[in-house]
């Protein structure tokens, strides 16, 4: 018998020494890497937080500058403000002007946040009023008024407050204020110091880290929940290993037109915990190395090698293979697996077929569901209109409204076909528009134009109503009369007829973001029940026509919205469904 390779044997302590040496070496390397990592992460974290603070401050500077300019322009140029400041102004004109100014600053507050409070002060008339929803209590409002009166009496109010934001204390709460004077008119913007720095509180500054707004003397302007009193900030950390022992690092950034600063106190004690954890992990690694070495040797001999043999046999299995013999395996479970392996393959093939058939059934159910989907609000509005007519004893209108509503819903629930005649769909749209005219009266008018020889064209049911309903829902207003137009024509391309249906209105048109998504085939946001009708219609057309139908959305240059549908005629795959 040929003797195997004569490898020199070693005692187990030899391998233990080797593993111990490797473990110690790995531990030392880990310590060096840990210190370097902590130092680098600390510096990068400080730089990141400083960049974040700078970015936030630039945004606040931009907001402050715009609000200051907006208030200055309003005082100098807004006619409503001039009317309110004119002695002897008619009371009705005064109230209307006040409402217009209130509306302007309501919009400004919506753009920049509810935390911004706006006030208007007419010195000669002793008029002081908030011109947007405010977050102050009545006592705070009264104290603020007293302070504003006192501050505006100063001759230096323009130099002190115009284009400059300053801290102010109202009822033991610190605020930041900007006063814009123009003759005896003043517009004031007020924001809580806590609200100003609240976005920065989302940053992870460590267990004891915090964000604070401080004045020019370094006194904290934020409440104790925002900044921690008594904390002594350190100087900026230097790039050295000594900075690892510093518990905190302070980053202070100032605003361009303000007499206060943002201070971030960063707590780095968490890195010490990381280093200790890494040391413990390394010691555990040494212990586990010794244990796992023994376990792996046993596992390789008794478990891994039989499994590898089984895996190699499985790799060679084909769909028509006979059962393989695993009797030589030392693992009984592998023998049991073999008897069911081919059966499993057959089951997988069967499942694939079942899943495919279920997908087809799912598409059919989805198509039927989308055809029957209606808006419950429309039904409720119809009932409400009929109720209102009954109260006003409009019996003829009630008869017409009830009959129209009955026809409308009868058509919806009876349109179980995939395709309907064009004249039936247009009649359904006309009934819908007449129902809506009873609701909106003269708020809109409509025109339906198509030649009688096109009445036999076929289209999917409820497609036209979706876009007509969208125009009524989003374009009808009391300010101007909306015009809705529906036209149908026949176009022939390559000896193939197409029904071209165009629906347009004179409303505000599609929003740019919605128009962009529709043009690029992206799904619209259907949260809160929006855009469900459009998306359902597009999906139905895709299921019925398979890329052959076209829907083009646009906003014409003259204004309004336009939807053009190009539908193949006839649809051979589903034509048999039409009765």
Automatic annotation (TrEMBL):
An example molecular function term from Gene Ontology annotations: ATP binding
Keyword Transport set for record: no
Membrane-traversing stretches: 20-41, 275-299
SMART domains, sorted: HATPase_c
Keyword annotations of the record: ATP-binding, Coiled coil, Kinase, Membrane, Nucleotide-binding, Transferase, Transmembrane, Transmembrane helix, Two-component regulatory system
Keyword Lipid metabolism: no
Pfam families hit by this protein: HATPase_c, His_kinase
One Gene Ontology cellular component: membrane
Coiled coil regions in record: 334-373
Highest taxon above the source species: Bacteria
Record domain Histidine kinase: where: 463-571
Protein name: Sensor histidine kinase
